[in-house]
Here is the input.
Amino acid sequence: MTVAFIFLLFLLVGTAVPAFKTLLEGNLYLALFWYGSMAALLLFVLPRVGVRRRAAQRRGMRIYALTGAAIFLALRFVSAVFMKCLKGSPYDSSIGGMVRNVLLLLLPLIVREGVRAYGLGLSRKHIRHRTLSAVLLTLFFALLELNVQRALRLEGAENRFVFAAETVLPALARSALQTGLVLSGGMWPSVLYSGSIGIFERVFPFLPDLPWLANAAIGLCFPVFFLLFVRERFRAEEFGEQPEPQSSSLSWYAELLAAVIFYWFCVGVFPVYPTVILTGSMEPVIHPGDVVLVRKLREEQEIKALSEGTVISFRRGDISITHRILAVREDEAGNRTFITKGDNNPSADTEVVHPNDISGTVIRVVPRVGIPVLLLNSRRKVPTEIQQGLRTVTAIP
Here is the structure.
């Protein structure tokens, strides 16, 4: 059985080879043959080995898996709506195209989770190595999802960090969750969780196009929280303890809600959002590494109320700047523009700020909280005008 399992792993590695992966994705009949053969091998040739759970547990885990998938999709789509980061789907929206896309999603997913369940079932025969086997399988299936060629082509520490945060860590968290689902309820809860998310994304006409930091936060944090919930619910069988179902469920939902609220706060869903100062243009009021809280301006009257001395956050291209209003100009038609200057800069900014460029006003400074982000952006190129003190976020009046 072990030799057959290793053979299945080699077959899965073959599907991750870029040339063969492209071939499978481009030829539905070849994909049906390849994954159908692997499924037949699992079902009809190899001895039935799997993670045994009671029928009630399997049914419960399937419900949890569908619920978790719905929450994950809600997190991404609600964030995208508030951040105005929705874009058209790149998938074929015709009936035939959607059927093809769903089949190309489900075929490899069912086979992968079947192999995962088979491997975890084998590991239960060797109790001493059960945890190590689960960890190795989690790493293996996470690596299958990664684009190794893209990773090798990355240049610079910042690009590698972004790839690790947006792609590698979420893949590990997702694989760990799938392993937990299989251990708790068999392969089908894992298939339902990933399959529901994948199918929705392939048939819905709009998809989130979130910034990398938002993708990293959702992709890493939610699977970890959901995995903790799954393990808590089935701790009685795993560790011989009897959890309190109602209290553990409420605790998990409360923790998840707190995490969601904090995430939405960080990405700017609420009227006030945080931002990190990267340079010293506003010293001594605001220092690099400080976090400033910015209150959004949504009404025209709020723009008209801005006056000299107010510290505002505004955009110039893809750069967010926080400077103080030095002067307010108004033409004969009543249109306003603003002259800004960093407190630590020798002269005013060369370009005027228009109302549409303004994100909000700074209301509070939290010292030093953003130092990790400061270190990450230490090599970021900033326009010459802003280098004298500006950074990517906000300040206080």
About this structure: Confidence is low (pLDDT under 50) at residues 379-397. The first strand starts at residue 86 and ends at 88. The longest helix spans residues 55-83.
